Amino acid sequence: MTSRIEKIQQLLLEVLAPAKLELHDDSQSHAGHAGAGGGGHFYATIVSSAFEGKTLLKRHQLVYEALGDLMRTDIHALSIKAFTPEEFEHI
Amino acid sequence: MDAIERIKKQIESNRVLLYMKGTPDFPQCGFSGRAVQVLEQCGAEFSYVNIFDDPEVRENLKAYSNWPTFPQLFVNGELVGGSDIMLEMSKNGQLQELLETTKKP
Question: Is the ipTM of this complex over 0.85?
Answer without folding.
Answer: yes
